[in-house]
Amino acid sequence: LYWRGRYHLFYIFQDPSLPRRGHCWGHASSADLVHWRFHPPALKPGPDVPEEGIFSGCALVTREGIPALVYYGINAGICIAFAEDDDLVRWRRHPANPVIAEPKRGDPAFDVYRVFDPHAWLDGDVYHMILGGLVKPHNVRDTAYLFTSRDLEHWDYQRPFYSPNPNWTDANEDCACPDFFKLGSRHVLMCISHPRGTRYYLGRHHAGTFIPDSHHRLTYPGGASFAPESLLDGMGRRVFWAWAIAQRRPGTDQFATMTLPSVLTATDSGGLMIEPVREIELLRRNPRETAALTLDNDERLFPALAGDCLELRLAIQPRGVRRAGLSVRAAPNRIEETRIVYDAVARTLSIDSSRSSRDSAVFRSFPMATRAEKRDRPVQTAPCALDEDGMLRLTVFLDASMIEVYANDRCKLTGRIYPTLAGSRHTRLFAEGGRAAFSPVHAWDMAPLVYSTHDSPAEGAPLPTRSVVDGDGLK
After folding, report:
1. Secondary structure of the chain in the HEC alphabet?
2. Stretches in the chain below the pLDDT threshold 70
3. What is the reported pLDDT for 179?
4. pTM
5. C-alpha to C-alpha distance for 104 and 463, rounded to whole angstroms
6. pLDDT score of 475
7. Can the peptide bond before residue 41 be classed as cis, meaning omega within 30 degrees of 0?
8. What is the pLDDT of residues 138-161, one digit of tens each?
9. Cβ atoms 5, 87 nearer than 8 A
């Protein structure tokens, strides 16, 4: 939620001292997406509330101008809480929670709709809420269920919000963590399916029904992007995050993180552009660049590009080559390395993490893959079109175990790579099966984000050397 000049990010964490692994909502906020202040937990289960834990949900501003949280309460249903201060630190639960109760087997509604992950918005004088799930009564294929209300307490079920298309999604895919918004002249329904990760529909919204025109994925086998959420900020940008899952075997340490914030923009051709927010440039330190070069079935090591927390920007002209790209976080003997590969024949972009880590606990699979699909997928591959001038423009972010790759502002890959060796810091460019031209590679070390707590804010920390101004980006 963007509220009074601050970005508020709510996230699920587990408190093992509470029942059912204690799913709670944490809370952090920032004025510039670089300085982050951690607040006390926004929502926790307890003996005086109906839910046993807090799962996914959303935030909105009510008709009266009060921020509200809408969430799925475990073994209860849809619950709502209202902010009691402008810092969004104190929250008061609705006394009628759950405002949409979870139907039990035998209830008339049990085979009609599912009460699960909510997304709510105010349209005119009426509140709308969609609940993600599977098509009832057989729980096969994805859909969401539309409810409406005039007071946030009394909700009327309307209809399925959209119809699934078997040409786009598999029968076992659901619609979870839904996020619905207008972007340009189109509407976007972003969500996950538990077996396949982040995806979105583009389409039209008419009379309470969403008509998808196309379907797109942001997670591919081996990818880490999950549980997307977005907000509209004060500059009119649609800012988007996802949860980067811990790609490790069950029973080992599981530390997830958030992706970098990105901006979503509608294109004239009816697609989406995705690019990192410009505020990330405030983290740049120690700039350097290479000379342009052409490689003919060869590779080149660049010692100046070494690092484990980097931003890299480059362009590749892959005409006449089979594969071209770069390897990052590489050890001198290459026993560890991660390859970013453009396949000019297949027109795909991949993160090949088959040698990223010597840690045997690393396991890259869909978060809730079926038993048949539960296997390590070390190469993540997405379709990727070149720009009209035949160039592949890449922005790569490396941060410890994280790798995020943006390509031509239309494709984004996210992964966890877990290098174990202190020397796994090197960068190489390569061309395989022909010639590829490389622009100068621009590189920066990335300064760490500045974190503080609610009781000891660090808003005056000296990190930013440039400022963000209304509508004009960085100056």
Report:
1. CEECCEEEEEEEEECCCCHHHCEEEEEEEECCCCEEEEEEEEECCCCCCCCCCEEEEEEEECCCCCEEEEEEECCCEEEEEEECCCCCCCEEECCCCCCEECCCCCCCCCCCCCCCCEEEEEECCEEEEEEEEECCCCCCCEEEEEEEECCCCCCEEEEECCCCCCCCCCCCCCCEEEEEEEECCEEEEEEEECCCEEEEEEEEEECCEEEEEEEEECCCCCCCEEEEEEEECCCCCEEEEEEECCCECCCCCCCCEECCCEEEEECCCCCEEEEECHHHHHHEEEEEECCCEEEECCEEECHHHCCCEEEEEEEEECCCCCEEEEEEEECCCCCCEEEEEEECCCCEEEEEEEECCCCCCECCCCCCCCHHHCCCCCEEEEECCCCCCCCEEEEEEEECCEEEEEECCCEEEEEECCCCCCCCCEEEEEEECCEEEECCCEEEEECCCEEEECCECCCCCCCCCCCEECCCEEC
2. 251, 253-254, 367, 372, 454-475
3. 98
4. 0.92
5. 53
6. 25
7. no
8. 899 999 999 999 999 999 999 999
9. no
* Residue ranges of domains in the chain, CATH in brackets: 2-279 (2.115.10.20), 289-446 (2.60.120.560)
For residues 178 and 132, give the distance between their C-alpha atoms in angstroms, rounded to a whole number: 6
CA distance 271 to 262: 16
Q: Give the pLDDT confidence of 269-278 residue by residue, as tens digits.
A: 778 999 999 9
